[in-house]
Write a structure and sequence with these properties.
By secondary structure, this protein is α/β, with parallel strands linked by helices. The protein is 30% helix and 23% strand. Among the domains are: 139 residues, 3-Layer(aba) Sandwich (Rossmann fold), CATH 3.40.50; 110 residues, GMP Synthetase, Chain A, domain 3 (2-Layer Sandwich), CATH 3.30.300. The strands form seven sheets. Strands 1, 15, 16, 17, 18, 19, 21, 22 and 23 form a nine-stranded antiparallel β-sheet that branches. The C terminus is likely disordered. Keywords: Ligase, Membrane, Transmembrane, Transmembrane helix. Pfam families: AMP-binding, AMP-binding_C.
């Protein structure tokens, strides 16, 4: 059997602790010691720092209030935990991590949500998670209320992340309430092994097909992945001179914490390593550059669209980035040319890529410790504890250097898709996770070749073609549809729709000619943009086709249309620096 794995052994990973107990209350062997003057968080706008003591104080105060006012408790009756919390934040505010930990202190489950979701998209997530409490930024309240109302969730289930004129309670007031009252909850105590089967997060992913599904991630998974990354980066080696992260280093916290990359790698690993997170509420590239310079940031955790901006935006010219010591990109592959340009831009930084999935919670491979520049095309080396196989289409195992689907296992793997045994059986097989990515492994380095699965990656976010196709079929102008991803310099790829026009659409086109055809296409595109989040819009356009190619069983032959999309004359790619207000 051909298996690949890191030769570095892992230390003991505690399986009787919750995430807050591990990060806020315990000192683990090999964990860097954080000096008392090194804060957890710094607010970008005001410069206000939040120390470990304050974060601890606020998390436990909020937990007491959640217990008293919302009766959040560990669950039973066939579920590790009964109640769930929808964390919806328009801004990545400092109250967000506190709210996450407060819920988990009580044994609750957090299901992070994209604040830009439409009410329909949010309703889908709420209905699966069956949330009891919604923690929301005031700016997202109207959307959250619409989604909650459709799910039968009452208005008294809301808690605001920030204060506003609303009569609804907010986190600051809840923290004060929690500390002014006696302790109302019984601290969660896990038995040995229980952290492996106790859900901490329901993070949504499209998996290999279909609508987003809730990935059940245990407390143990997150703790394990953080320890794996720490060992990979040799943070526990007192003789290693070139540590990638030291207490007092400052990481830019601009990637959203609702995404698994920001949630585990930044919000938890950086803090474990002794670093400080500069909380950036909203991404604006020129402001982001100013913050990097003003705070002398040392660590950049990026996605490819941000790397493109660094390499092409005129506002970068003339800036001094000599204080940057580490720059890594994830969520989607980064081209070799961009890596070379980043190396010139950040002359003192280690530069490379990482790879992981929500289903692997999170990191599978990462830039090797002490490496100045990652191998071009490589997503890094397998981290300690991860075992990998490369499976050929005929089911046999590929040797080193041969392509196939990447299948991985390790201590951080998720538990499966929540309340979805059929989807779980497709992706989680005997403890192994089918990634759906075609790779080659050489010298334990992972090279991503293509996505076998149908999911697109747009600016690092997953987009399921089936979701958009189902939505398109609801429009009277659409008889059949297939959505594929097409390359885009800024977004990595963008959705493009092949559409078989309906009889009514054809009639309109026949009567009106080219202008009518363009109008019909615009109407179809608007049907998507009116109901879906921005990164799901058909920015690759609509192309009319006589028939969608399918196999005898009716499955869309998507690869044929992907190849055909390469020959279609399309609109110009997104201009990478036209939007300094671009949202990630």
């Amino acid at each position: 059997m051909t298996e690949f794995h890191s030769p570095v052994p892992l230390p003991h990973i505690p399986d009787d602790l919750t995430i807050p107990q591990f990060f806020l209350r315990t000192e683990s062997p090999g964990r860097p010691i954080r000096p008392r003057n090194v804060p957890f968080f710094i607010d970008d706008a005001s410069g206000r720092a939040v120390t470990y003591e304050e974060a601890h104080h606020r998390a436990y105060g909020l937990a007491n209030a959640l217990s008293m006012e919302w009766n959040i408790r560990p669950g039973d009756v066939g579920m590790p935990l009964q109640y769930h919390v929808m964390s919806l934040s328009l801004k990545v505010a400092m109250n967000y991590p506190v709210a996450v930990w407060a819920v988990q202190i009580l044994g609750g489950i957090v299901t992070p949500a994209n604040p830009s979701f439409t009410a329909d998209e949010l309703q889908h997530q709420l209905s699966i998670a069956r949330a009891k409490l919604i923690i929301v930024h005031p700016a997202g309240l109207d959307t959250a209320r619409k989604a909650a109302s459709a799910c039968g969730i009452p208005d008294n289930a809301f808690l605001l992340l920030d204060e506003n004129k609303s009569s609804l309670p907010n986190v600051n007031g809840a923290v004060a309430l929690g500390w002014n009252k006696g302790e109302n909850y019984e601290a969660v105590r896990l038995q040995p092994g229980e952290a492996r089967r106790t859900i901490a997060f329901l993070s949504f992913s499209s998996g290999t097909t279909g609508k987003p599904k809730a990935v059940a991630i245990s407390h143990y998974s997150v703790i394990a992945n953080v320890i794996q990354m720490a060992v990979h980066n040799r943070l526990d080696d007192p003789d290693w001179p070139d540590k990638s992260t030291l207490p007092g280093d400052l990481a830019m916290g601009v990637l959203p914490f609702f995404h698994i990359y920001g949630l585990v790698v930044i919000m938890h690993y950086v803090l474990y390593a002794g670093g400080t997170i500069l909380i950036v509420p909203k991404f604006n590239f020129t402001d982001f550059l100013d913050s990097i310079t003003r705070y002398k940031a040392t660590h950049l955790y990026l996605v490819p669209p941000m790397c493109v901006l660094f390499c092409k935006h005129p506002a970068v010219k003339g800036r001094d980035f000599s204080h940057i010591k580490f720059c890594t990109s994830g969520a989607a592959p980064l081209g070799g040319d961009l890596m070379v340009q980043l190396g010139k831009l950040f002359p003192n930084a280690a530069i490379g890529q990482g790879y992981g999935l929500t289903e692997t919670a999170t990191t599978v491979s990462y830039l090797p410790a002490g490496c100045k520049m990652g191998t071009v095309g490589s997503s890094g080396k397998l981290i300690p504890g991860v075992s990998a196989k490369v499976v050929k289409p005929d089911g046999s195992l590929a040797a080193e250097g041969e392509p196939g689907e990447l299948v991985v296992t390790g201590p951080s793997m998720a538990m499966g898709y929540y309340d979805n045994p059929a989807a779980t059986a497709e992706t989680f097989v005997d403890g192994w996770v089918r990634t759906g990515d075609e790779v080659v492994i050489k010298n334990n380095e992972v090279y991503i070749l293509d996505r076998i699965k149908e999911i697109m990656k747009v600016r690092g976010f997953q987009v399921a073609p089936a979701e958009l196709e189902a939505h398109l079929l609801a429009h009277p102008y659409v008889s059949d549809a297939c959505v594929v991803g097409i390359p885009d310099e800024y977004s990595g790829e963008v959705p493009m729709a092949f559409v078989v026009p309906s009889a009514s659409a054809l009639s309109r086109i026949t009567k009106g000619g080219a202008s009518a055809e363009e109008h019909v296409k615009q109407v179809i595109e608007k049907h998507v943009s009116d109901h879906k989040i921005n990164y799901k819009w058909l920015k690759g356009g609509v192309e009319f086709i006589d028939v969608i190619p399918k196999n005898p069983s009716g499955k869309i032959l998507r690869r044929i249309l992907r190849d055909q999309a390469k020959t279609v004359k399309r609109r110009a790619p997104e201009i990478v620096y036209r939007q300094t207000q671009a949202k990630l």
